[in-house]
Amino acid sequence: MILYHAVTTSQLLYCIIYKELFHKEQVCYILLSNFMKEKFLQFKQMEGLFFDKIFVFNTDEFYSNDINTNEGIGKYLIDNKINLQEFSDIIAGSSNSHFEIYLVENKINFTFLKEASRLIRHDIAERKLDSGFIEKVLVLFGIDQKIQINENSTILLTQHFSNLTFEEHKKIYQLVVDYLVPETRLVIYPHPDDLMFYDALFPKATVIKKNFPSELIPFAFAKKPQTVMTITSTSINNHLMGYFENCITFSTDFERYFTITHKYYCAVKVISELFEDYEIYELNSDKLLLENFSGNQFGKSINSVNHLSQIPKKSIVIIDDISCDTFTESNEIYNFLTSLDEESIIIFLNSNKRYLFYNYPNKEVFESIMPIEILHSSTIDETEKYSNTFFIFSKRKDTRNMINDLTFEKTLRSSKERIKVEAMSEEQLRIKVLEGILEATEKRLEHYIKLELELREKLNLKMT
């Protein structure tokens, strides 16, 4: 006989598949936590179909009655006439639940299911499991009919963001959908702990209501989604990579600075509209975000460099300030701009407003700078407006004029916002440049004041 133990629905799925692959002809029991019983109401259907007998253990007793693990598990096993010595193998889905702790403390051997999970995923991927068996598994997890979706759909795997406010959680998904996915082709697979009201946010999307393990996604749809997209979900790397034609992912820190998305879109838009035969490089930027847009706009690869000396002539370089020491690099960047060839174009996204191109007090760099102002307006309140700016450096005046003449706009339906980039007059350009000089100078002065204070503190420590 074999005894299985599962704490989560994914572990339960692995137990079912592992039994089918390796213990199909043997008598198998499964031990579930009461949490699974409450969350997985149809658990009784497994008895006779996948397992010969089901036991449910109430872990709440440990907390309500202050019972230690050995005492609680031991009593449960005796009450239910379970003799662990009778089982030829114990397959444990968790490494730190009360049952596994009991096994370790009592020196009872068991197989940790996580060690077999890669093999199980491989068997799913290779379709080694009988289609009839898969259908029974789907029905068990509430998928009695394949989910109908539109052609070329994108499935979004959401996440519960504990570090974001409710409004930030809402905004981050509105932005990625507005920029990257037509809502009519959007399929949303919510994380079990994600309580966001996606039906209201994306009324034209398909929101999956059934709670089933993400491992079953490739089998759940009548038509397979073309693209999978996630911000932080581990499901793509764990077991979904390779199932879909396209994969859209984001940097691990994207949730911290997702508001930069507008600048990245506009920068790529400028490149796609005006510059075709350039190699594109990036330094200190969010490369994944750039590639998410560049793939849609012009399909070119973006090369990463660690040093400006690696960049050849006639290139476009996208530089940001999200992960660098601003003021130690500003002198290097200034020297790079001074020696730059006439054809190259440098885009400073300036996400953290560090003005890397400005090496105080050398203001002449602004003579070759073209500010690009992104005008934001609400689609439901005309008085709600703001703007932000990034900068493009080119030594050629005709190139700067061409950039300034470019006009485009985009409506972000879910975000209820419209962004617009439009040509600026000579007076508007002059004001924007002066504003840039003023803010960049303030940033440098703040930095020098901070350095002076740190130096004084060090001197005072040495003197004492």
Which overall shape is indicated by the principal axes computed on the Cα atoms?
elongated
If strands are numbered along the chain, what order do they take across the biggest sheet?
Answer: 12-11-13-14-16-15-18-17
**What is the averaged pLDDT score?**
87
Broad structural category = alpha/beta
Number of domains in the coordinates? 3
Q: Using the coordinates above, name the CATH class of the largest domain.
A: Alpha Beta
Let me know the number of strands.
Answer: 18
Q: Supply Rg.
A: 29 Å
Number of helices: 16
Largest sheet: 8 strands, mixed
CATH architecture of the largest domain: 3-Layer(aba) Sandwich
Strand content: 15-25%
Helix content: 25-40%
CATH topology annotation of the largest domain: Rossmann fold
Low-confidence stretches: none
Q: For the record, give the distance between the C-alpha atoms at the N and C termini, rounded to a whole number.
A: 74 Å
Textual characterization of the structure:
This protein has helices spanning 9-22, 34-39, 60-64, 69-79, 98-105, 114-125, 131-140, 166-180, 198-201, 217-220, 235-240, 261-274, 287-297, 326-338, 397-405, 426-463, and strands spanning 2-6, 28-33, 53-57, 89-92, 111-112, 154-157, 186-189, 206-207, 227-230, 246-248, 279-283, 303-304, 315-319, 345-348, 369-378, 385-393, 408-412, 417-421. The model has no long low-confidence stretch (mean pLDDT 87). The protein has 16 helices and 18 strands. The chain is an alpha/beta fold. It folds into three domains: 2-140, Rossmann fold, CATH 3.40.50; 154-255, 3-Layer(aba) Sandwich (Rossmann fold); 258-451, Rossmann fold. Strands 12-11-13-14-16-15-18-17 form an eight-stranded mixed beta sheet, with helices on both faces. Strands 3-2-1-4-5 form a five-stranded parallel beta sheet.
